[in-house]
Write a structure and sequence with these properties.
The complex is a heterodimer of chains A (457) and B (195).
Chain A lengths: L5 H8 L3 H23 L4 H17 L1 H14 L3 E5 L2 H14 L5 E3 L3 H5 L2 H7 L4 E3 L2 H8 L16 H12 L8 H18 L2 E4 L3 E3 L4 E6 L3 H8 L2 E7 L3 E2 L4 H13 L7 E5 L7 E7 L3 H6 L14 H5 L1 H6 L10 H11 L16 H5 L6 H14 L5 H14 L2 H17 L1 H4 L21 H9 L2
Parallel strand pairs in A: 1-10, 2-3, 2-4, 4-7, 5-8, 7-10
Antiparallel strand pairs in A: 5-6, 6-9
Chain B lengths: L2 H12 L20 H11 L3 E5 L3 H12 L4 E3 L14 H4 L4 E5 L2 E3 L4 E5 H4 L4 H4 L2 E7 L3 E2 L2 H7 L7 E5 L4 E2 L7 E2 L6 E7 L4
Parallel strand pairs in B: 1-11, 2-3, 3-6, 4-7, 6-11
Antiparallel strand pairs in B: 4-5, 5-8, 9-10
Classes of the chains: A alpha/beta (457), B alpha/beta (195).
Chain lengths: 457, 195
């Protein structure tokens, strides 16, 4: 099946106007909560600066930090695995499952495992995993993917969740109360936690000097899984490394405030050794990250701490929904990360932006997201990954704009045409611009002509 | 070449020139005059409760009250009782109604408390209990996370956690629901005297 481009998928998303407005307003509400929370911290801008510089330093010494981290982690009794790509990551996990004859698996939110399509892979081998983050469980029941990295089910209304839970958990039909629905999920998942023999989690931060790692959740699902199961596998992209435990202060002050406006997530769990009788595995994954590290224009993207502030502020994300991005990590940050992994398949994503720069302004680690979007566009065009229509249009535009006389003539001609044949411009077939927009009134005069006439007066 | 060598080699070739690690200047970090007031206000704003205790024996009456009501209680506070062993698993811990645990640090800016493995005895306890009661000495409250990390060795034991309020979610239409998978409530008892 052909994957729809962002524009095609977004066109479908916005057909339901009230829902689009709701999606837009809900995410803007989260952005406002972030603003209120941020204004409560006097040294906010300084924190962003430290966060950005600590990551700059870490990226410039990354191999040494990874070696240090591995050594300390091993000394603490953690079994460390390395995976060059998603396939290797999935293989490491299925090997552990096979060796330990694991039957029941619970998984907390990990965008890395989404990136590696772990659930899909395990399913194809006849192994089922239970996602335990409430939003992820909802989308898993619906056979969908998360549409947001922090709020996985933000594309759904409570009526949708109610219907899904009615089908899968036998909740009352038509009971849309979030409290009631959450309680049903709590009861359902408690039994899963207790039965599970393997818990898979992500990693928010890995600390080189201690060999430990931190996992942040509000629900407590990562901990319920990891401390109940006899085996814990934590999966991390290698950019999760920070040098010292004290640096956690900087990132934990920024993360939840940027994500949801909370002063900190309910749980910030620091793991360093398996408990007695438990196996603790850690999988360190590259999957294109080392390549991105080599791209000077784009390596900054590896600083990301996955707060999703750039999603919530983005006017395009808010009005097109996460699924329009057809990648595990969507939104502005996804649009600068995913072309690195597959430039052709994700060539449309850097164009899904107004380049307004709001994403860069809210980023807690100061990634120049909008500039990177613009740089990806240039690279994608020069590699020939844009549609021929766009290519011809851009070339024609460049030709006209570089010749003032031709530009003036074309403007006059276009205005004349618009007055004489307005139906041509109001044809959705002939004029794609008109599909979602009103055409302006064609004036007789250009601005230059008007200015010349009125200058003396 | 193994995945490890391949990855480390690629990073070594592709990493930028070494840049310095910045210093976090504590002079520039907020500190609060009334730590208890800030801690209390923050914790209450995120759904937690704060209770004042004149002495630790009051914990006994809180526990007895629960027992009279027929609830399962686990007390992990050192020096009171030691009726919990680390060998307990999820099935035996699941019925726990209230757990009593001592914390080492409280953070005023975000209402979080630091609990290390030896204080919770079983890692699962603060998460699996229906209600969590944390005892914190008043003079163990610090201003920010920077101050907290200066005082704790966060990886000295196998596990440790900052907990700020009850378990919660807003995954259904951004409606806040308290009591997702972890404790449905969190009460921090502030103790005015050392014990």
């Amino acid at each position: 099946m052909k994957v729809k481009t962002h524009a095609e998928a977004a066109e479908k998303f916005i057909q339901d106007e009230p829902r689009t407005d709701w999606h837009d307003e809900t995410l803007w509400f989260v952005r406002e909560k972030r603003d209120r929370s941020m204004h409560g911290v006097n040294e906010w801008e300084l924190l962003r600066e430290w966060a950005s510089k600590i990551k700059d330093h870490t990226l410039s010494n990354l191999d040494n930090y990874l070696i240090e981290f591995e050594e300390k982690a091993k000394a603490n009794g953690i079994i460390v695995h390395w995976a060059a790509d998603g396939a290797e990551h999935n293989q490491v996990i299925i090997d552990i499952i096979g060796e330990n004859n694991i039957q029941k698996i619970v998984k907390s939110k990990s965008m890395l495992t989404e990136e590696c399509r772990l659930n899909e892979f395990l399913h194809s081998k006849g192994i089922e995993t239970v996602d335990t983050d409430l939003g992820e469980r909802i989308v898993q029941f619906r056979d969908e993917t998360p549409s947001h990295i922090v709020l996985p089910a933000i594309h759904l209304k409570k009526e949708d969740v109610s219907e899904t839970f009615h089908q899968h958990l036998g909740t009352e039909q038509g009971n849309n109360d979030p409290q009631y629905l959450t309680e049903a999920a709590r009861q359902h998942l408690r039994s899963k936690f207790i039965e599970a023999d393997l818990a898979i989690t992500g990693v928010n931060f890995a600390i080189a000097e201690t060999g430990g790692f931190v996992v942040c959740t509000n629900e407590g699902n990562a901990d319920m899984g990891a401390h109940a199961a006899s085996i814990h596998i934590a999966c991390m992209g290698f950019e999760k490394i920070i040098p010292k435990a004290e640096h956690l202060a900087v990132y934990l002050r920024l993360l939840a405030r940027s994500a949801t406006g909370q002063p900190i997530t309910t749980y910030s769990s620091h793991y360093s050794k398996p408990r007695a009788g438990q196996q603790m595995h850690l999988v360190i994954v590259d999957n294109g990250r080392s390549k991105q590290l080599g791209r000077a224009d784009f390596r900054n993207s590896l600083k990301c701490i996955r707060c999703a502030a750039c999603f919530n502020t983005c006017p395009v994300y808010r009005r097109s929904g996460g699924h329009s991005y057809h990648t595990a990590v969507s939104g502005p940050i996804g649009s600068i990360l995913t072309p690195n992994i597959d430039m052709k398949a994700n060539a449309d994503l850097p164009f899904a932006s107004t380049l307004c720069g709001s994403c860069s302004n809210v980023c807690p680690v100061k990634i120049d997201i909008h500039e990177q979007l613009w740089k990806w566009r240039q690279l994608i065009v020069s590699e020939g990954y844009v549609s021929s229509g766009k290519k011809i249009g851009m070339k024609g535009m460049a030709f006209v704009l570089s010749k003032p006389a031709l530009y003036r003539f074309s403007g006059k001609a276009a205005r004349g045409f618009m007055r004489l044949f307005p139906f041509l411009f109001r044809s959705k077939k002939l004029n794609p611009w008109y599909r979602q927009r009103e055409m302006p009134l064609a004036l007789k005069q250009s601005f230059t002509e008007w200015y010349k006439q009125n200058k003396k007066a | 070449m193994s995945a490890r060598e391949k990855i480390l080699h690629a990073i070594n070739i592709n990493k930028p020139e070494l840049v310095n690690l910045p210093e976090v200047d504590m002079q520039q970090v907020t500190s609060y005059d009334d730590l208890l007031a800030k801690f209390t206000a923050t914790l209450q704003s995120i759904g937690g409760q704060v209770l004042g205790l004149a002495d630790i024996n009051q914990i006994h009456s809180l526990i007895n009250e629960e027992l009279t009501n027929g609830h399962t209680v686990l007390n992990a506070i050192n020096g009171i009782t030691d009726d919990l062993n680390s060998g307990q698993d999820a099935i035996t811990l699941e019925p726990v109604y209230k757990a009593f645990i001592k914390a080492s640090i409280g953070v005023a800016e975000n209402g979080a408390v630091w609990i290390k493995e030896s204080q919770m005895i079983n890692r699962l306890l603060p998460f699996i209990c229906q209600h969590l009661i944390v005892v914190l000495e008043k003079d163990k409250i610090v201003s920010t996370m920077h101050h907290a990390y200066q005082q704790i060795n966060s990886f000295e034991e196998g596990f440790g956690v900052f907990i700020a309020g009850p378990s919660k979610t807003a995954d259904i239409e951004q409606s806040l629901v308290i009591g997702a998978h972890g404790a449905r409530s969190m009460t921090v008892c502030i103790l005015n005297k050392d014990f």
